[in-house]
């Protein structure tokens, strides 16, 4: 695995590391509706300091923990519209997909486009065997994206995550390399 963050492109997106001058934009977007509520690790409120720390640590986290996080940028104007990530467990050749899209860019296929590109990178470049993800059972939009990109529903882990004092059910989705390679 290369220790440098990749630059990936799709028909409508550029996926790349964030730059310090994007901290204010990240701060605004991450405080948008449903971001912290629907994700496991984004704090609320999301401060400018947190945004700067995230940007400063992207490369180091990839090198030390295998957390590959990239900004989703529109190809036409470079606008940051979200984050996509793949947490890599090299010992098991497994990747855990995550991410979020800003409120004004939702329901336009960006999440699926970015996730597909990152999964391709994981299977082809990183040699992963399996990629999966989870979402809260109440987050129908994320579940729909996972199914759209070819992850198969594997089950529900009841009460598996404590979020804001409430035990949430997690829906589990995944695919393996052989299935990914032969998708339509």
Automatic annotation (TrEMBL):
List each copy of the N-acetyltransferase domain by range.
13-177
Q: Which UniProt keywords apply?
A: Transferase
Check the record and name the CDD domains matching this protein: NAT_SF
Q: Which residues cross the membrane?
A: none
Carries keyword Zinc? no
- Cross-referenced Pfam families: Acetyltransf_3 (PF13302)
A Gene Ontology molecular function term of the record: acyltransferase activity, transferring groups other than amino-acyl groups
Which protein is depicted? GNAT family acetyltransferase
This chain's source organism reads Pseudomonas aylmerensis
């Amino acid at each position: 695995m290369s220790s440098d963050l990749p630059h990936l492109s799709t028909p409508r997106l550029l996926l790349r590391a964030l730059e310090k001058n994007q901290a204010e934009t990240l701060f605004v977007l991450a405080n948008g509706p449903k971001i912290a509520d629907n994700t496991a690790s984004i704090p609320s409120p999301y401060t400018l300091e947190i945004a700067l720390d995230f940007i400063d640590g992207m490369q180091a986290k990839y090198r030390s923990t295998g957390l590959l996080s990239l900004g989703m940028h529109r190809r036409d104007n470079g606008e940051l519209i979200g984050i996509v990530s793949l947490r890599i467990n090299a010992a098991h050749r497994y990747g855990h997909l995550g991410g979020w899209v800003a409120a004004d860019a939702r329901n336009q296929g960006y999440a699926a486009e970015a996730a597909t590109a990152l999964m391709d990178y994981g299977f082809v470049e990183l040699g992963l065997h399996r990629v999966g993800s989870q979402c809260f059972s109440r987050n129908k939009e994320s579940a729909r994206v996972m199914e759209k990109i070819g992850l198969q529903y594997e089950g529900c882990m009841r009460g598996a995550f404590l979020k804001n004092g409430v035990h949430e059910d997690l829906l589990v989705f995944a695919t393996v390399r052989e299935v990914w390679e032969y998708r339509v």
